[in-house]
Structures are given as structure tokens and as C-alpha cells.
Design goal:
Helix content is about 40%, strand content about 20%. The chain has 21 helices and 23 strands. The two termini are about 60 Å apart. By secondary structure, it is an alpha/beta fold. Strands 8-15-13-11-9-10 form a 6-stranded mixed sheet. Strands 18-23-22-21-19-20 form a 6-stranded mixed sheet. A 5-stranded parallel sheet has the order 3-2-1-4-5, sandwiched between helices. The longest helix has 30 residues. Helix 19 packs parallel to helix 20. It has 3 domains: about 190 residues, Methylglyoxal synthase-like domain (Rossmann fold, 3-Layer(aba) Sandwich), CATH 3.40.50; about 120 residues, 3-Layer(aba) Sandwich (Cytidine Deaminase, domain 2), CATH 3.40.140.20; about 120 residues, Cytidine Deaminase, domain 2, CATH 3.40.140.20.
């Protein structure tokens, strides 16, 4: 009874091999795995001596041999296959433990194309796919996390068809993800990321209770390590909608240290940047305390007891922060419906992964694009278009407002005063409607807009938006520009002695 072990990730392989020997398996192995097993006193046979063919071409050819492929693939229940195996001296290989060359780690470490190509596995995927194809007879193991479970099953004589089917699916997932990674990398390197095919892959992190609605199934899949290692569940079960709101909240909050962002149904209903996280939360809540009820709060700082107690005064469904003090955690744990999540980092502030591309699902396919982002340089390089210069405090508020609208559904306008969001209109069919909606919400909340700044994620097509802003007390405006009536818009701002700045970069978000 043969088991073939050939792994790039050597973690746990010695213990696994020892367990297999105790279960009666004879072990075949290739150079790197062979060496570590021999060094640990495990009886193992070199594949080269087993096949009678030495490794060739600097290890490019090791397992591509009929005695290996045949031993994995032949169907044990067919007389013709048994005859072929006997005539060619092929023994059955009933267990296969393989994981692949570290292509992902290589492209993260170097840009040397020759080294990258040499870390494309050939024999490994061939063996894995062969074993998976013949899962009725062959048990395929590709993940070190499964070693202990597999050994327990073997010791209990539970090498069942159901187990082999489960491992078969994992095997094809392993090779599919590997091939997708290689294809996407090559397209990124040679086709600017947009090749004939694009592949979206992710590792399942968890099922959600349901999708956006109870009649829909849902799950979270991770691209990269962010949700696998950085995101920590401290209390509660995150829902599908929680994750989408958390995404919106941390994207905005991460733009400024010590800031607080409040999200409801994917849209910001509060944001503030004050001297302390506590003052930021109080100001953010004042923007729209009605919508904040049952919302998602992201704090870009450590949450202490004082802030936790303030947040606990109303019902908040989700609170996410880089970290919490022990006292804050103990207090918040008493809030039965509150869900707590952390994103720990060395800096005590959010450290989010960068994304090179984003995609949107549509009927029959998906749209792929380079990811959008809003940089500090956009504000720093914004150009004064009118006759009036903004003050430093106005520029700071314009930066806050501009980053908020860039990360919020279009059409969007935001009003910021003294570091706090005081009005926002988003997802509207016209920019004037967005402005009016924000004005009405501010009025309902008793907020004074006089002296605030206004930001838009795209150009104002007509001067009517400027006139409306003036009537609300706006003191400065920032927008991308690009309308055929830009001159009219600038002149309107000049006539009211309002600074107006253009960034020349639109941030639609649909």
C-alpha cells in the first residue's frame, strides 16, 4: 500500500508521514520531501529508485512517469486496467499528499521572471488532478490542516468514499486556484491585467446566516490574508449586510486617524475628525442620530471605556476598531445585540489591504476595472479656480468632504464643518437633488450649515448647484470639474466670493 508524499509546504509532513507508516503505508517521495523525512528517521523510498528514472532538467521532471501516473490513475475494479498494471509493473498508489510550488510567495518576493517561472509546478498539479479523478480509489490530501483528521480517519478504518469525495473537491479547488493565480499574474505582467480571461478566486472564511435577505444563501470569501488573519470576531455573528457596511465604514474611517464613521445600509450617516475619538464619535452621531440607530460604527483608534460607554448609550449593531481596551471589552460584552470586531495592527490604526482591481456582478457576467482610490495628493494638488483662496481650516474640511464623497454612492455631495459631516446626499439621480436632500436632513437634525464646505465626487453641470450651496451658507467648494459650463460655475462662485477648487479627478461609484 503506497502513499506518495511530495510537498512544498513541509509543515506537519514529518508527523503525517510517521502516522501513515503506522497505518501500514509504504512511502514514496521526491527530493526535498525525501530529505526531511530521512533526516527524521522515517523509512521512505526515493521516487527515482522506484520508477528507475532519475530526476532530470534541474528537477523539472520528477514524477511525470507511467509508474506514478498509472499507479494513481488505473481503475482498480476493471480487469483491463489490472492487466495493464500487472504487465507494466505498476503498483497502486492509494494515497497522495501534494501541495504546490510557492508561486504566490515568489511573486510577492521578487520580480525576477526566470525565478517566477521556475516556481510554476507541473508534476504536482498533474498528480493532484489524477488522484482527484480517481477518487473512488485514491485519497488526495493537499492541505496540511487536514493531516491530523486524515490520520484519525485512517486509524479508525474510515477511509470512506465520502471522505475521498470531500478531498477530491478540495484537490480541484487547490489546482484551480493555483492556475488562476498564474494566469492572472501573466495577464497583469503582459496584458495590463485585462487578458482574454479573468479569474476571481477566494477562500471561504465563513457562511453567513443568509445573504442580503433571508431567502438568499450567503458566505464570505477572502482574497488574500485580510479576512483570514487580520479580521477578528470578538462578539457576535457577522451577517452578509454587516460585512458590506463594515467595508464602507472602514474605507472612510481609515482615511484619518482618530476619526469615526457611522454607516447605515452602505451609506455614511455620520463622520467626524476631532481631537479625540470620543469627540469624533459625538460629532459624527450628531449628523444623523436617527439613521445611526442600528448602524455600523468604525473607530480608527483604540476604543477605551469612556468611548465604549458613550457608544453604548444607543443601539449600535456593529462596532469595529483596530483594538479595544480590556475595560471597554468587558463593558461592551454586556450589550446583548452589539457585535464587536477588531482589525489589530502595530500602529493602533486601521491598516487595510490594497486592491489592484474591483469587479461588479451583472446579469450574464461581471465588469472588471482597476480599483479606484482617493489620495492625499488630490487635495494637496487641487487647483484654485476662482479669485478666492481657502483658509487652512477650509482646506482641511474640504479634504474630509472630498474623501467622503469619493467613497460614497453617486450622485453624492457632502457638507463638512469644523471636521464633522453636517449633511450628505448620496445615490441621487441629480446633484441638485443630492444637495437638497443633504440640506433637509441637516435642517431636521438642527445643524447649522453656515460656514461649511461642500464637496462633490463629480462636476457640477450647472451653476444652480452653486446657488443652492450659497443659500445654505457654504463657504468653500471642491469638485473635480470637467463640465462644459465650468466657467459659469466658477464665475458664480466668484460672484458670491466663495473659494472653489478643482481636483480634475472624478470618483463615480455606482
Amino acid at each position: 500500500m503506497f502513499a506518495l508524499l511530495s510537498v512544498s509546504d513541509k509543515s506537519g509532513i514529518v508527523e503525517f508521514a510517521q502516522g501513515l507508516r503506522e497505518c501500514g503505508y509504504e512511502i514514496l517521495s521526491t527530493s526535498g520531501t525525501l530529505k526531511i523525512l530521512e533526516e527524521n528517521g522515517i523509512e521512505v523510498q526515493d521516487i527515482a529508485s522506484y520508477t528507475g528514472a532519475k530526476e532530470m532538467f534541474d528537477g523539472r521532471v520528477k514524477t511525470l512517469n507511467p509508474k506514478i501516473a498509472g499507479g494513481i490513475l488505473y481503475r482498480r475494479n476493471l480487469a483491463s486496467h489490472q492487466k495493464d498494471a500487472q504487465e507494466n509493473g505498476i503498483q497502486p498508489i492509494d494515497l497522495l499528499c501534494v501541495n504546490l510550488y510557492p508561486f504566490k510567495q515568489t511573486i510577492q518576493r521578487t520580480n525576477d521572471f526566470e525565478e517566477i517561472v521556475e516556481n510554476i509546478d507541473i508534476g504536482g498539479p498533474s498528480m493532484i488532478r489524477a488522484g482527484a479523478k480517481n477518487f473512488e480509489s485514491v485519497l488526495v490530501v493537499t492541505n496540511p490542516n487536514d493531516y491530523q483528521r486524515i490520520l484519525q480517519k485512517l486509524k479508525n478504518k474510515e477511509n470512506t468514499l465520502e471522505l475521498r469525495r470531500e478531498m477530491m473537491i478540495k484537490a480541484y479547488e487547490h489546482t484551480a486556484g493555483y492556475d488562476c493565480l498564474i494566469a492572472n499574474y501573466m495577464n497583469e505582467r503582459f496584458n495590463e491585467g485585462f487578458g482574454e480571461y479573468a479569474f476571481i478566486t477566494g477562500k471561504k472564511v465563513m457562511d453567513t446566516r443568509y445573504g442580503e435577505n433571508p431567502h438568499q444563501k450567503g458566505a464570505l470569501y477572502a482574497q488574500g490574508e485580510f479576512f483570514l488573519k487580520d479580521f477578528q470576531i470578538l462578539k457576535g455573528e457577522p451577517s452578509f449586510n454587516n460585512f458590506t457596511d463594515i467595508d464602507s465604514a472602514i474605507k472612510i474611517a481609515s482615511q484619518f486617524k482618530n476619526s469615526v464613521c457611522i454607516i447605515k445600509h452602505g451609506n455614511p450617516c455620520g463622520f467626524a475628525l476631532k481631537d479625540t475619538p470620543l469627540l469624533s464619535y459625538i460629532s459624527a452621531l450628531s449628523c444623523d442620530s436617527l439613521s445611526a440607530f442600528g448602524g455600523v460604527v468604525a473607530v480608527n483608534a483604540k476604543v477605551d471605556l469612556q468611548l465604549a460607554q458613550k457608544i453604548g448609550e444607543i443601539f449600535v449593531e456593529v462596532l469595529v476598531a483596530p483594538s479595544f481596551t480590556q475595560e471597554a471589552l468587558e463593558y461592551l460584552s454586556s450589550k446583548k445585540k452589539l457585535k464587536l470586531f477588531s482589525l489589530p495592527s502595530d500602529s493602533s490604526y486601521f491598516e487595510l489591504p490594497s486592491a489592484k482591481e474591483s469587479f461588479k456582478s451583472i446579469l450574464g457576467g461581471f465588469l472588471l476595472q482597476e480599483s479606484d482610490s482617493v489620495s492625499d495628493e488630490e487635495m494637496q494638488e487641487a487647483k484654485k479656480m476662482g479669485d478666492y483662496e481657502a483658509s487652512e481650516s477650509q482646506k482641511r474640511d474640504m479634504e474630509i468632504a472630498y474623501k467622503i464623497v469619493a467613497l460614497t454612492k453617486s450622485n453624492c455631495v457632502a457638507y463638512v464643518k469644523d471636521g464633522a459631516l453636517v449633511g450628505i446626499g448620496m445615490g441621487m439621480t441629480s446633484r441638485v437633488d443630492a444637495s437638497r436632500n443633504a440640506m433637509l436632513k441637516a435642517k431636521d437634525m438642527g445643524l447649522d450649515l453656515k460656514g461649511c464646505v461642500l464637496a462633490s465626487e463629480a462636476f457640477f453641470p450647472f451653476k444652480d448647484s452653486i446657488e443652492l450651496a450659497v443659500s445654505m451658507g457654504v463657504s468653500a467648494i471642491i469638485q473635480p470639474g470637467g463640465s462644459i459650463r465650468d466657467d459659469e460655475v466658477i464665475e458664480c462662485a466668484n460672484s458670491h466670493k466663495i473659494p472653489i477648487y478643482f481636483t480634475f479627478k472624478r470618483h463615480f461609484l455606482h
